[in-house]
Structures are given as structure tokens and as C-alpha cells.
Amino acid sequence: MHASTELLVDAFDRIREEVEATVTGLTPEEIGARVGPEANPIGWLVWHLTRVQDDHLAELADRAQVWTRDRWVDRFGLPFPPEATGFGHSSAEVAALGAPDPELLIGYHQAVHERTVGYLGKIRVGDLAEVVDDRWNPPVTLGVRLISVVAEDLQHVGQAAYVRGLLRNGQG
Fold first, then answer.
1. Could you state, in order of their start, the residue ranges of all structural domains in the chain?
2. In percent, how much of the chain has pLDDT > 90?
3. For labeling, which of 15, 43, 85, 108 is most exposed (least CB within 10 Å)?
4. DSSP assignment of 27-74, as one string?
5. Is 0.85 surpassed by the pTM of this model?
6. CB burial class (10 A; 0-12, 13-18, 19+) of residue 40?
7. Rounded Cα–Cα distance for residues 113 and 13 (Å)
8. Architecture per CATH, 3-168
């Protein structure tokens, strides 16, 4: 594996570690708690960041999403279409996620992480410059798309960790 892809694996490893550290030990009430009327709860944040990673990496690898292929969609039993990732969700849709079991969230994230790392192990450094989306100006390369997923996921796992801190310190 090339140093560039090793860095990407390290970034996704850090996301997985933070997801586990943030979710482990939480009660269902904490998973579903909203610290403000429109705030996203930990469960939704982790579900969303995992759905984004699953959706984007599946598209890049030209494969089915873990969400549908491994029937995580059925295990969660959400009132959303299978292709939903959380982008554009209203406050009511965020609330509809409820409080998924912490182990379910961690399990789904781990399954997506394993597929992500497997995909990253197969790309070559030259692949990172390949244009994967020409709807943007400038066109989006594979490397840029992967970094955007890392950025999105780190932002949301940081938000989830912050909410955990608020809840555990009696401020939520």
C-alpha cells in the first residue's frame, strides 16, 4: 500500500475509533437525546456519517452498499427509503430515527469500515487523480471525494462526542 492510501486508512481508522468511543456505554435515552429542539442526536449523527461513508464508497467501488447488501436497512427498520443517507433530513425525520441500539450503530459502522479499508487497499496512488464526478468545477477526483468523506465523518463524530460530553456532564 502506498503512503497516500495508508494515510486514508489511518483517517478512516480514527473515525471508527471515535465512533466506538462516543457510542460505547450510552443508554438508549442518550443515543436519542436532542440537546436542543433542532439538534441532531448522537444516534442520528453516527447513522448519518456511516450512511454517507457507505453510500460514497460503494459508488466509488461500483458495488452495493453494506446497508442494503448485508440487510442493515432491515435491522434498523427505519421509516426512510433504503437510499436515504440523512442529507436534507427535516427535524421530524431526524426524530424518526429514534434511539437505535448502540451495538447496532457500532456494528453497522464497523461493517462499512471494513469494506472501506478493503477498497482503499486496492487503489493505486495514480487512481487518486482520476475524475469521479464532473458535475463540479473543478471536477472531483477520487482523492478529493475520499477526503470529503473523511471531513464529513470527522465533523459529525466530533459533534456526537460533544453531545455525549454535554449529556454526561448534565448540560444536555
1. 3-168
2. 94
3. 85
4. -HHHHH--SSTTPPPHHHHHHHHHHHHHHHHHHHHTS--HHHHTTHHH
5. yes
6. buried
7. 8
8. Up-down Bundle (1.20)
pLDDT at 171: 64
pLDDT at 172 over 70: no
List residues bridging with 133 in a β-sheet.
140
Instruction: Flag whether pLDDT at 148 surpasses 90.
Output: yes
The pLDDT confidence band at residue 3, using thresholds 50, 70 and 90, is: confident
- Rounded to the nearest 5°, which phi and psi values hold at 72? -60, -30
Amino acid at 167: L
What percent of the chain has pLDDT above 70?
98
Q: What are the cell numbers at 148?
A: 470529503
pLDDT for 1 beyond 90 = no
133: helix, strand or coil: strand
Q: Give, in order, the Cα–Cα distances in Å from 38 to each of 11, 65, 97, 120.
A: 29, 29, 14, 36
* Residue type, position 135, single letter: R
Of 108, 100, 91, nearest to 30 (Cα)?
100
**DSSP character for 81?**
-
